[in-house]
Design a protein that fits this description.
The complex is a heterodimer of chains A (about 120) and B (about 110). Chain A is about 0% helix and about 55% strand. By secondary structure, chain A is mainly beta. In chain A, the strands form 2 sheets. In chain A, strands 2, 4, 5, 6, 9, 10 and 11 form a 7-stranded mixed β-sheet that branches. The radius of gyration of chain A is 14 Å and the shape is globular. The N and C termini of chain A lie far apart (about 40 Å). The relative contact order of chain B is 0.35. In chain B, the strands form 2 sheets. In chain B, strands 2, 4, 5, 8, 9 and 10 form a 6-stranded mixed β-sheet that branches. Chain B is built from no helices and 10 strands. With about 110 residues, chain B is an all-beta fold. Chain B is globular. In chain B, a hairpin with a 2-residue loop joins strand 6 and strand 7. The chains are: A mainly beta (about 120), B mainly beta (about 110). Chains A and B meet through strand 5, strand 9 and strand 10 of A and strand 8 and strand 9 of B.
Chain lengths: ~120, ~110
């Protein structure tokens, strides 16, 4: 079955760029939408953005100016870059497969999540 | 602020039925999906696209929708159902994905 695994630094300095990668195993990345979602400590889920297997992407308007999601089909993985981070970006970051239809979106497979702390 | 509104907390007696609601204008046009999250774990999809359950999700979980409200119903709640529950859908102003604020379910 398809599994997702996030990787990247657990500590990022303020004003720097957060970079995470999600490795997809057990299936091809060349279908579906692939999303990043975050969860600040003790708070709810916040969608960051997605990339489609064709390379098209869409981002949360509140983060759009700072976010880039990219795809590497040769490595079967996708990545997140979030620039100019502050303490407010401290969160558990999840990658997830997004199953989308005409009138619904469902995140049916999730990575285990990785905690990223923004601190000097 | 989220465009999908959930009650912060709900409780249910063991074995009884509980309904967790999600309200938002976009639910008039789009289906909600529902997730269960236990402490320290990633969310799990329990319902999507009008009462579809992924493999392995018990049939005590069901969905109903009316107007601008989607409802996750747990019929015969079990101790292991104690968790946070989140809904998501599209929003009415173009944001492709929005989550509700979450509901903490306590099984008494």
């Amino acid at each position: 079955q398809v599994q997702l695994q996030e990787s990247g630094p657990g500590l990022v300095r303020p004003s720097e760029t957060l970079s995470l990668t999600c490795a997809v195993s057990g299936g091809s990345i060349s279908s579906f939408y692939w999303s990043w979602i975050r969860q600040p400590p003790g708070k709810g889920l916040d969608w960051i953005g997605y990339i489609y297997y064709t390379g098209s992407s869409n981002y949360n308007p509140s983060l759009k100016s700072r976010v880039t999601i990219s795809l590497d089909t040769s490595k079967n993985q996708f990545s997140l870059k979030l620039s100019s981070v502050t303490a407010a970006d401290t969160a558990v970051y999840y990658c997830a497969r997004q199953n989308s239809g005409f009138d619904f979106d469902a995140f049916d497979i999730w990575g285990q999540g990785t905690m990223v702390t923004v601190s000097s | 602020s989220s465009e999908l509104t959930q009650d912060p907390a709900v409780s249910v007696a063991l074995g009884q039925t509980v309904r967790i609601t999600c309200q938002g204008d976009s639910l008039r046009n789009y289906y909600a999906s529902w997730y269960q999250q236990k402490p320290g774990q990633a969310p799990i999809l329990v319902i999507y696209a009008k009462n579809n359950r992924p493999s392995g999700i018990p049939d005590r979980f069901s969905d109903s929708s009316s107007g601008n409200t989607a409802s996750l119903t747990i019929t015969g709640a079990q101790a292991e159902d104690e968790a946070d529950y989140y809904c998501n859908s599209r929003d009415s102003s173009g944001n492709p994905v929005v989550f509700g604020g979450g509901t903490k379910l306590t099984v008494l």
